[in-house]
Amino acid sequence: MMLTLAYTMHRGKVCRQQQDCILIDGTIHQAPVLPITALSLAGDEVLLAVADGVAASGGDRRIAPQQASRIVLEELLKSVREHRDWLQDGFVANRHVRHVQARLAECLANHRKTYGAASTLAVAHVRGQHSAILNVGDSRVYQVNQEGRWRRLSKDHTVLQGMIDRGETSPDTEYASMYGALAHVLCADPEESDFAIHRMLVTLEPGDTLVLCSDGIHDEIGEAMMWELFDPLLDVAAQTKVWRDAVWRHGAGDNLSLVAVTVEL
Which domain holds residue 185? Predict the structure, then answer.
């Protein structure tokens, strides 16, 4: 199967540090500015991920969040490579993510400046015509077909989403931004191991595109605009530019990371 990928990241107009990190088929990127990069992959398996260091976490917030997101992806890649026996249905499993959390705590929890450093995680593990989607936090994964029909595959782990899940409010009700606070993350604290993981398996059809992004994309321009700006006639690099440019026009107030991968016809 042939996959065409495009990816980019930027620290945004406001943030000094790049607290996002992305994983592209064995290579980890964490740069203040990463221009749109496109490549084609022919193979049976690819692992893609976005991690977003939580800005308000860790003792020294100038260093802790970006360390957390990078360690999360380093340990994820290592875990999947070294623990193939943990695979579920042939794909990355919750056990891998639990292991990543434990390693994050081992690396950072014993240091005052990094104790409590936290990160979100969104993963797409593609094998053949199927993919496992996992996420913790509010970094997202979407699937869109060549007719432009979208669906969100990930699940936000926020205070508001928890209220919706419990039937305490409607998805259409507007709440103050504080309700968007993260309820579950990967955290450099050995006592914080009881976090939620969302996982699902999806089938990929020729022409389908998976989109992984940090909240610097979907929060800045909104999910509806992301979908509205999708043009099935564009290649993934051009489409990625459309989204990145829209985020920039709307202020780019946060780090932004975006990965798009299309299953070729």
Answer: 2-263
**pLDDT tens digits along 144-172:** 998 899 999 999 998 878 887 888 787 77
CA distance 58 to 119: 10
Task: Quickly list DSSP for 189-209.
Answer: -TT------EEEEEE--TT-E
Band of the pLDDT at 265, cuts 50, 70, 90? low
Residue 183 has which token pair?
């309820």
Count: domains in the chain:
1
CATH code, domain with 75: 3.60.40.10
Nearest 5 degrees, angle CA 249-CA 65-CA 54? 60
Mean pLDDT of 245-255: 97
Greatest CA span in the chain, whole angstroms? Answer: 51
pTM to 2 decimal places: 0.95
Cα 62 from Cα 19, distance rounded (Å): 9
Q: Which is nearest to 122 in space by CA: 159, 158, 76?
A: 76
